[in-house]
Amino acid sequence: MKPVGTQSPAHTNEAFIRSSIRGVAATANASIVNRTHRVVRERARVMQTQRSMMRGLLLPMLLSSTLMLMLLFAVGSALAQDIRHGCPRTVTA
Questions:
Q1: CA atoms of 37 and 43, how far apart (whole Å)
Q2: What is the distance between the alpha carbons of residues 41 and 28, in angstroms, rounded to a whole number?
Q3: Half-sphere exposure in the Cβ direction for 67 (13 Å, CA)
Q4: What Å distances lie between residue 45 and 5, 38, 41, 48, 74, CA to CA?
């Protein structure tokens, strides 16, 4: 019978292997977490850049849309006025 507190060499070897595997898993998990953080930071940076570009284009888009609507309204009003007053569309020389 073995005295209490002593372990067989196979049991000691198994314990060493298990602790080694846990260490590798902890290192692998830290590596995965660091990579995930890098990926998340990069995506956040890309999203911030896209938002910044959209903010820069917002004013010109609003201005050009307003001018386009005013132009279309003016052309539509001119055509409607021509139709109502019966202005000839052809010029005779």
A1: 10
A2: 20
A3: 6
A4: 56, 11, 6, 5, 44
